[in-house]
Each structure stands twice: as C-alpha cells, then as structure tokens.
Amino acid sequence: MNQIHVRAQPGEVAPYVLLPGDPNRARLIAETYLQGAREYTSHRQLLGFTGTYQGVPVSVQTTGMGCPSAAIVAEELSRLGAKTLIRVGTLGGATPKVAPADLVIATAAVPNDGTTRQLLGGAPYAPAASFEVVEAAVQAARRLEAPHHVGLVMTEDAFYASTPEHARLWASRGVLGFEMEASAIFLVAAQRGLRAGCLTACSNDIGDPQLVPDDVLAAGVDRMVRVALEAIVALASAPSSGPVSG
User: Fold this and answer.
1) Structural domain includes residue 2
2) Where is each Nucleoside phosphorylase domain found (predicted)?
3) Domain span at residue 117?
4) 8 within 8 A of 14, measured Cβ to Cβ
C-alpha cells in the first residue's frame, strides 16, 4: 500500500537514500548527479526521485524542515525498503573553526528536539550515526580532498532561538554545529534496523548573522553530495557483514 506521506510503492525507493530537507535540493541532486532519475512522488512537496550513481540505485527523498517531518519520512522509507539513510543538508557552525561551506560529518546528534523525546518517552538516549556510514563518508571526503570535520552536531527545533552564547557553550562541549533533522533520523533508523548518516555543509557561523555567499555554499553543497554518493558506492561494494544495524 501507499504510505500516507511518501506516496511510493515498494520497489520504487532504492536501498540507499539521500535525505535533503529542501525539495529544490532534492530535484537538483536527482537531475545533476543521478543517471535515469525518475520522480516517484511529489505529494506534499516531499519530492522523491530514484536513479543510479555509478551503477548503484540511489533515491533522493525530501524530508522537509525539522524532526517531526524527518521522522515521518524515515519511518515510511523503512516500510518502503530503504536500508541506508543519509541526510544531506546545511548547518550553522558552532565554532569559527568550521569554515563557510566546510563539510561536517556527524558521528552523533545531541537531541535538543521534541520528536526524539516523544518517541523515547523522555528516556535518555544518544542518537548516533552508523559507524559504517561515517567511515565511508570520511574516506570519501579524504579521497575528494573536501575540507571536513567529524564529530557531534546538535539537533534543534527552534531555528531562531540559537544565540552566539548558546553556540559557544555547546562548542566547548564538542558540538560542531546546529541542524534540525539528524537526531530523529538516527533514532528511527536504529529502531527500524537501518543504517544512517548525516552530512552537512556549513551555511554560517551562529555568531555571524551573514549567510555564506550563494556561490560558496553551492560549492560546499556540491562537495557534500559528491562525498555522500561516493560513500554509497563504497558501502554498496563492501562485503556483507550480516544484518544491517543502526
């Protein structure tokens, strides 16, 4: 049966799925990087496409902004046969060492959001990326010589609530930047036995109200997507190590 929000049939979604928040970015990724991309859903502007990259079937599925929407999409993708979910988006840097358009590869997400709290009934939990996905992404970033950082991100609900003071406090605790979907994607993936990762390009320093110039950010997004796709190729060619785990 069709899912309520991701209106696709089993078989239309590939095992590997890139998850941008923005539908325009989903279309851009499908049209720029995938061969034979075909749109399988446009319901609620949660645009979804499936094509191939270097012969590997890959889908690109919009999540929308924030954890509630991302959790719905991740849950429905699991029912449609997805096995590896990789968020590709942007984040606000928590520290100046994360330069404009730098790639941030998340190892885990501090869950400062309401969705994971509700899913867990308030229980303490550390939403983490799958080691295999992090490893493949780091290796791809090195091969492509993409400036990158690896570590914690924080997932938040209130985009305009972050302040420079809040950013620097969490930077002192190891957080590289702030975004809005990773914790929910990591949690749902763990609950459903999927692999998950999160790659983001830095759009601004929380201490600086100016966004990165469009051309600079576009270059960062291009590097991020290429790293994600190269990571997928590596994951697809790796020997199977048994059931997928979160």
Assistant:
1) no
2) 16-229
3) 16-237
4) no
